[in-house]
Amino acid sequence: MSAPHVGSADATAARVDPPGAGEPLLAVRDLAVSFPTESGAIRAVDGVSLDLAAGELLALVGGSGCGKSVTALTVMGLTRPQGARTEGSVHYRGRELLDASEDELRRVRGAEIAMVFQDPLSSLNPVLRVGDQIAEQILAHEDVTRAQARERAVELLGRVGIPAAARRAEGFPYELSGGMRQRAMIAMALSCGPRLLIADEPTTALDVTVQAQILDLIRELRDETGAGVLLITHDFGVVAEMADRVAVMDAGRIVEQAPVEEVFAAPRHPRTRALLDAVPRLDDPLPARRPPAEGEPVLALDGLEVAFPVRRRLLRRDSDLTVRAVDGVTLAVRPGETLGLVGESGSGKTTLARAAVRLIEPTGGTVSFAGRDITAASRRELQPLRSELQIVFQDPFGSLNPRKRVADIVGLPLRLHGLSKRDSAARVATLLERVGLEPEHADRWPHEFSGGQRQRIGIARALALSPRLVVLDEPVSALDVSVQTQIVDLLDELQRELGLAYLFVAHDLSVVRQVSDRVAVMYLGKLMEVAPVAELYERPVHPYTAALLAAIPVPDPSRRDRRVRGVAPSGEPPSPTDPPSGCVFHPRCPRATDVCREVVPPLAAHSDGHLAACHHPLTAAS
Amino acid sequence: MTRFVVRRLAQMLVVLFAVSVLTFLIFNVIPNGDPAVRMAGKTPTESQVEAIRADWGFDDSLPVQYVTTMEKVLGGSAISYFSQLNVRDQIVEGLPRTLSLAVGAAVLWMLAGVALGLLAALRAGRLSDRLLTVLALVGVSLPVFWLGALASYYLGFKAGWFPNGGYVPLTEDPLDWAHHLVLPWTVLAILFIGFYSRVLRSNVLDTMSEDYVRTARAKGLSERQVLLRHVLRNSLIPIVTLWGLDFGAVVAGGAILTETVFDLQGVGQYAAEAVGQLDVPPVLAVTMFGAFFIVVLSTVVDIVYAILDPRIRLT
């Protein structure tokens, strides 16, 4: 077994190796991985075989817990610290990695096989400088001086598209935006010119416009270096956009492996079909919805403003900074309708949702509930309204008290509103059945449930008092696609039966399209566009909305090239502490002119119920 | 960073002022009766009390009294009415002894605590880890006066390996200085070693499951580099804070028992004796000294912490 030494050749030079004697770069055979636990071994991977050639991009797809990440980590021997037991074989360029010594593996890791992880913030050491973290890897594999390694780090940062790379190299991870951090992680992975890049959900933690940029970068680098890429994802949109071949995993096994076109055109395994069907697509027919309800809005926001102080300086009181998380938003939710509210991280959508139910105090404007101004209502005055105005939170793990039984979590609002213990228990049982759980679940603890089940508990709690409006703050974003569909269906059913109105906050435009009657788009605290759902998705008027839509990966490989490139905005949202002048979107807008830099565009009507705040709207005429 | 340091130092001055006012109130104003009589000792004559009253200005308004008291305590003119010795001179004499004890013990408990904590974390769940857990518990449970007396009796008096208490200045004979201090250092450190090794063990175990440690391995760093640069460095940050505060507490009176058992004649022992005799001026002065020391040290700790962890918001 001769390990070809990877010298200190210029890592940035293109390298396209002829595959050694027709052998794939990576060949995994019958890989099984199990972890010892107190209650016996858990088999996470159960007989996985796959091949990856140089220059090829293989997507490994599956729901959470299917073993896709464990497979990737095991290739690099990174499950060893957890005491993983492995069987089968992992051949990398003729070498067996599974039983390689730690020292042999160490020379492969980072130098020949590099990895990019999901969450770039937690994957970078918070107290070391970005440049040093990259240099560290170069120093581990190549015979260079510290100064040379640092210089290379700066070069690499520049190459992955980080502006002012020299200054960024001196910075700490927390000083970079999410997209920049992931670029830095990619720079690190590239630093020693790997032949195989493993990217584990590299864009899942990122906004959709940033995701498009990172995916482009990965593809570019693959083309340039000829490295093989193993892309792990749950998102069939990303798969369609990126992959040459697809391997679908379920319960530790690969259930289907085929070229990308085949998988989408004719999925063979039922699991693949189920996963594909669960993906919300922008070209799905819109679900039939009832005509918009008339009447007085349940919730009306008028010029709502929420500002947070950021820092006080010792001697300069006048320079106190505030973040205007929500900056003058006027919106209404009508009885029985769903208003979708979308925006990237930092757009203020969650703040708005919380201010709407007075969990955060507005600093300006008014909030009216059922025609009554509740902006300044006291706690006592709000108490009776709370039963009609409920909220479901994003994180089904963090938002349920782990030390309370389900009966107490769901029953607390009932008890607070004066129901007896017995009546409340009966109502809890009905509610649990209503959301698709068993009445017996009332005696269990939150940790005994899966993410989807917990979100059902959260919904049951919100429904306990028969509200008229439920604010749903990213209710499905922490869930697997197939579970997302179930929760969305449940919400839909409940709305029809109980006549609920929803304010549905999400960053995922495809999900919002499925559930909403009308959609509002926010950016940096401002409302950019509001329109009925079909209008907004088919005829967006604001360039920002158009850009968001263009950035969504289309789950259809045949339309990969038809995606209009260049429409997805470059760069990332600016800091909300220092928003741009005029139209806040102008620095990223392809249509921006001088007037956009100076004048804040007002929200203007473009057709019936279609409002947008733009000086250069994308109307049929333009 | 500069702004942060300046701001933190300004805060420190405010706290120091508050501490001095509180101390003044606690000793001179809040207790019932005549402060001059309390200060004069057990059997004062009328004229002694009058002299003290005039000297400390107890007939003046409270703000004037406060200023007089601070002048006497900080300016070094306060004297003990028992021994007639100048209080500041006594503290200055005791300080090198207390610092010698505290610095040595702090270095010892930090090194040993980190070493044992790291070892326990690396062997987590195995026999050696459990053994270290038991040892740490025993160490934390041993009272200083008991352990000190035992060590002093068996290793000092019986075996004769160490001098039987006392102190030799460092400048006079460094070897003899250390020889006199080995037992006090060890006895004082044992409690902290037990505590620190447990804290470090759990920090290291937490850090090892961090994503960035997995990244460090994925980069191809050696296990040693992963451990030192990524695991230990991040695990040590909270320990450094703890260390600064504990060191401050030991200097400011936390080593009274150790000093007394080994008869080191440090500041703590001086305070303990003054308390025993109800000798107010030394107690007042030592309290102020201790409080000041802790306030200054916690400021230093904050600044060091901000240097070690750049995420600390510098506001």
Brief overview:
Chain A has 21 helices and 22 strands.
Structure description:
The complex is a heterodimer of chains A (622) and B (315). Chain A is α/β, with parallel strands linked by helices. In chain A, 32% of the residues lie in helices and 23% in strands. Chain A is built from 21 helices and 22 strands. Chain A has an eight-stranded mixed sheet, with helices on both faces. Chain A has a six-stranded mixed sheet with strand order 6-7-8-3-9-10, with helices on both faces. Chain A has a four-stranded antiparallel sheet with strand order 2-1-4-5. In chain A, helix 7 (178-190) runs parallel beside helix 8 (208-225) and helix 11 (270-278) crosses helix 17. The longest helix of chain A has 18 residues, at 208-225. Chain A is globular, with a radius of gyration of 26 Å. By secondary structure, chain B is mainly α. Chain B has helices spanning 2-29, 35-40, 46-56, 62-75, 87-122, 127-141, 144-158, 174-208, 211-218, 223-254, 256-261, 267-276, 280-308. Chain B is built from 13 helices and no strands.
Order of helices and strands of chain B: HHHHHHHHHHHHH
Question: Overall 3D geometry of chain B?
Answer: globular
Number of strands of chain A: 22
How many alpha or pi helices of chain A? 21
Described by strand count, sense and barrel closure, the largest sheet of chain A is: 8 strands, mixed
User: What's the rounded overall pLDDT mean of chain A?
Assistant: 87
Q: Helix share of residues of chain A?
A: 25-40%
Supply Rg of chain B.
Answer: 24 Å
Please outline the major beta sheet of chain B.
Answer: none
Helical/strand content category of chain B: mainly alpha
Low-confidence regions of chain B? none
Taking pLDDT < 50 over at least 5 consecutive residues as the criterion, the unreliable ranges of chain A are: 1-21, 313-318
Measured as a percent range, the helix fraction of chain B is over 70%
Structural class, from secondary structure content of chain A?
alpha/beta
